[in-house]
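Table 4 source record.
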Amino acid sequence: MVGPPHDDKPPISVDEEGPVTVIVTRRAKRDKIEQFEKWMDGIIHEAMKFEGHMGVNIIRPSEPSNPEYTIIFRFDNVENLSKWERSEIRKKWIKESKYVAEGDAKIEKQTGLEFWFTPLRTNEQVVAIPPRYKMAVVTGAVVFVLISTLLPQIRQLTVTLPAVLSTLVGVVIMVLLMTYVVMPTVTKLLRPWLSKKKLY
C-alpha cells in the first residue's frame, strides 16, 4: 500500500483500533507533473515495505489544469500506520515533495465502520462516505444474516470444541468474510443508495 504523500506534520490522532484508511489529497505543480508521478511512485513503494500495509488506490486528475491527486491507502492498525508515519524514510520523501507539490496535503483518517465503506478501487472520483445511519443499517443487516446462517453451521462443524472456542472460530470467519468478501460486494451493489444525497 501507499505511503501518505503529505507534509511532515504530527500524525492525526485516531482512537479506534483495527484497520485504518487514510485519504490524502495532494496537488502537483503544473510544470512538475511527471516528476510528481515519480515521487509518488517512490514513496508508495517505500510504504509498501512496512508491516501492516494493506494496499493503495490512486485517483489521478481528470484535467491537466487541475492536477490534484487523491491517494487512498490502508494499514491493518494504527500502530503500524504510526511506524510508517514516524519513519525516517518517510520524512526524507516528504521533504522532497516540496519540489513537485503545491501547498499542504489534505488528510483524512477513517476507522471502524468507515473502513468497510471506503471504496476499494475507482478510476474516477472519490465516492463520498455514506451517512453513519446507512452504514449502521447495512452492517447490522449483514451481521444478522451471517449470525443466523453461518454461525449455526460452524457450531455443527466444531461441535467437539468448547462452546467459547467454537464461537471464536465463527466470529473470526465471519469478520474475514465481511472484510474481504461480503462488505465489498454489498457496498458495491448498494453504492447508489449509500451515496445518494437528500433532496430538499
